[in-house]
Design a protein that fits this description.
CATH class: Alpha Beta
Number of helices: 11
CATH architecture: Alpha-Beta Barrel
Order of helices and strands: HEHHEHEHEHEHEHEHEHH
Structural class: alpha/beta
Radius of gyration: 17 Å
């Protein structure tokens, strides 16, 4: 998974932005791809330190495979005041892994760890997955939904070219109390549906792209308590550094873009996003749990 993603990324790190006036949270990152390093490494610490220097002092590290989800938990254990973990099989992985049952067993065991606060990223991706494998993808999504409900943890959804089926499956199976649309990619109409159903919309650097006017309209509609911000680093570095290696520090740029679209102060928005992240994922403090 990481290798396939890495080939499209400029390994030049986007420069650090102007610091935020108050600290906030990156709700979705992949630090192992940013650093290509061990979960307890100095390289990971440096990325976290750089983010903290611009006001991004907490990160949710998100899983996409059994092995990488173990990396997430190890990072959350080591950086136990700054990192929380989410664990899952990505929708592109679920239909093609060698032993799906074995991998899901690993995910289920990890899901009960006290530093794991979400099940994700799961969902549907019809951009990469051919029609003949989509049924297996849908069954994996349903399994992850049930795991989120069983563990009483947030569900983090990856949704690419699959809006209608994601929404229908959430109705069919029953969405967890805390359901997050990671890197929201829908239009205003979809945003209204999600808001009405109580889902949480997380916006990434795509908000700043010239070809994303629908996202800028959608972010204006979301109530404070249903809003998150993320980098999805190392992907989706915000303008004007689109194509560079993204990192959690770039949250500062994305929050400013969100604040401008919503006609809010940066400080007020950053504070609300921080409060939301801790309500959805729980406290980052050592020794805490959901």
């Amino acid at each position: 998974m990481a290798d396939r993603h890495n080939r499209d990324i400029d390994r030049t790190l986007a420069p650090l932005p102007k610091p935020l006036p108050v600290p906030t949270v990156d709700a979705h990152a992949h630090l192992e791809i940013v650093t290509d390093a061990a979960p307890d490494s100095d390289a990971v610490r440096q990325v976290l330190d750089d983010a903290k220097s611009v006001g991004v002092d907490r990160v949710v590290q998100v899983g996409y495979s059994a092995e990488q989800s173990q990396w997430c938990v190890a990072a959350a254990e080591h950086f136990d005041d700054r990192v929380l973990a989410a664990v899952a099989l990505h929708p592109n992985e679920a239909p093609v892994v060698a032993d799906l049952d074995a991998d899901l067993a690993i995910i289920e065991k990890l899901a009960w760890h006290p530093r794991v606060r979400a099940i994700g990223e799961t969902g549907l991706d019809y951009f990469r997955t051919p029609p003949e494998l989509r049924g297996r993808q849908q069954e994996s999504f349903k399994w992850h939904i049930e795991l989120a409900k069983k563990t009483k943890k947030a569900l983090v959804i990856h949704d690419r070219d699959s809006h209608d089926d994601v929404l229908s499956i959430l109705l069919e199976v029953g969405a967890p109390e805390k359901t997050v649309f990671h890197c929201f990619s829908g239009d205003v109409a979809m945003a209204k549906i999600c808001i009405d159903r109580g889902y949480i919309l997380s916006f990434a650097g795509t908000l700043t792209f010239k070809n994303a006017p629908d996202l800028r309209e959608a972010v204006k509609l979301v109530p404070h308590d249903q809003l998150l911000v993320e980098t999805d680093s190392p992907f989706l570095a915000p303008a004007p550094h689109r194509g560079s290696l993204n990192s959690p520090a770039q949250i500062a740029t994305i929050v400013r873009a969100m604040a401008e679209e919503r006609n809010e102060s940066v400080a007020a928005l950053a504070t609300a996003l921080s409060v939301n992240a801790e309500r959805i994922f729980g406290s980052f403090a050592p020794g805490t749990s959901i």
